[in-house]
Design a protein that fits this description.
The protein has 22 helices and no strands. The protein has 389 residues and is mainly alpha-helical. The chain binds fe (ii) ion (3 copies).
């Protein structure tokens, strides 16, 4: 589990407890649609591993089940069973990828044998977002991000004057450079007031990083995604270090990838209100964001973000790494594995924890867990980027 403590699942949760919490969150959402009282339903789902034997027992055990569930006991049992199956299938996606619709069809096909109401699967389908556009446009122009990334990528040896020309075209870039140069980090007695002086103060390499971060920030700010932006900014140095260490990208390109990897999360802000409420309820109930996105939208923010950066003409390997940064086994690229590791170490509990994936990705990019941990604890770039935040 990632060491970052802002995870909706408590670090004390065992895998089984986490499964029961997700089953309960799903059951409550489904129960609302099926007209079943949600409190006993949530209790029955949370305790379903201990209650299930009681339900089939005679005597006191059976009585306890009846007291908890009251008149709705049959419906509650059905809903818990369906949601349990959904969560088991979602957990299994790391071993065998399936479309969510395929998962629903399979669960529906179990109905006769398992003796639950197949109409519940139909109600699960209705929870999904049908109006979400295939192609998403961002609410702000990604021009500054595209220009900085493109220029820095094609002119790897970009010098002071070239950086100045780019920065002067955009007040956000220029003011970010001035902010950093005048921050306590550089301890200057006199204020820096020109872009060229700012670049000379922080150095070309740091200036490039500051400009990249400054170019990306408005994209997140426009959608009110400060939390995701903070995560992107604080994890970008690890992406950069991993890229340089593995040789898969330059350190600077790694930084760009880190800054942009969760851009697809912007999409969630544009869900229809009803879906947004379901999304929020499920996340607050303990379902990781990527899990909820797959369930409700059929794809996670990595897949959505890949579509966005493709429009900005990012290189193919970037697009693939963003697309599969939560599902590295679906990519043939080592960069997706590197992206998974960076996300694992610094993520916000964005997906189900998977040590199998971590092990496979470490082996693919040929680093050890100790190396990953060591790189994750370096924060010299972070301090500089925080001056942009
Ligand atoms: Fe279960
Ligand atoms: Fe992510
Ligand atoms: Fe992330």
């Amino acid at each position: 589990m990632a060491p970052n403590g802002s995870d909706p699942m408590s670090l004390d949760d065992t895998a089984e407890q986490a499964h029961c919490r997700r089953t309960a969150a799903l059951a409550v959402e489904l129960g609302r649609r099926a007209g079943v009282a949600v409190e006993p339903l949530a209790q029955a789902a949370l305790l379903h591993h201990s209650l299930e034997p009681l339900r089939h027992s005679s005597g006191l055990g059976r009585l306890a089940w009846q007291v908890l569930c009251g008149d709705d006991q049959r419906r509650i049992a059905d809903i818990v069973q369906v949601c349990n199956l959904v969560d088991e299938q979602m957990e299994a996606l790391e071993f065998e990828y399936k479309e969510v619709e395929t998962i629903f069809e399979e669960i529906q096909s179990f109905a006769a044998f398992e003796e639950f109401d197949p109409a519940l699967v139909e109600q699960l389908r209705e929870m999904r977002c049908r109006e979400f556009p295939r192609e998403l446009k961002l609410p702000v122009e990604g021009g500054a991000a595209r220009l900085v990334c493109h220029t820095l990528r094609t002119h790897r040896e970009c010098e002071n004057r070239e950086l100045e020309v780019i920065a002067l075209r955009d007040p956000v870039l220029a003011s970010s450079l001035l902010n950093v140069a005048n921050s306590a980090l550089y301890g200057r007695a006199q204020r820096v007031s020109t872009v060229s002086r700012a670049i000379a103060t922080v150095g070309v390499i740091a200036a490039r990083k500051v400009m990249l971060a400054a170019a990306m920030r408005p994209l997140f700010a426009s959608a009110g995604l400060q939390r995701i932006w903070g995560h992107s900014l604080s994890s970008a140095p690890l992406w950069s270090a991993l890229a340089g260490h593995t040789g898969l990208l330059s350190a600077e390109e790694g930084l760009v990838l880190g800054l942009v990897h969760d851009i697809g999360a912007v999409a969630v802000q544009f869900l229809p209100r009803e879906t947004l409420t379901t999304h929020r309820n499920l996340v607050e109930g303990g379902c990781p964001a990527s899990y909820v996105e797959r369930l409700l939208l059929g794809r996670d923010h990595g897949e959505i973000g890949a579509g966005l950066i493709a429009e900005w003409h990012f290189p193919e390997e970037f697009i693939d790494a963003v697309r599969f940064h939560h599902q590295p086994e679906r990519s043939t690229s080592k960069l997706a594995s590197m992206a998974y590791l960076a996300e694992f170490w610094s993520g916000l509990g964005e997906d189900l924890p998977s040590f199998g994936r971590v092990e496979a990705c470490l082996a693919r990019v040929d680093i050890t867990l100790e190396t990953l941990m060591e790189m994750g604890s370096q924060d010299s770039t972070l301090r500089m980027l925080k001056a942009v935040a």
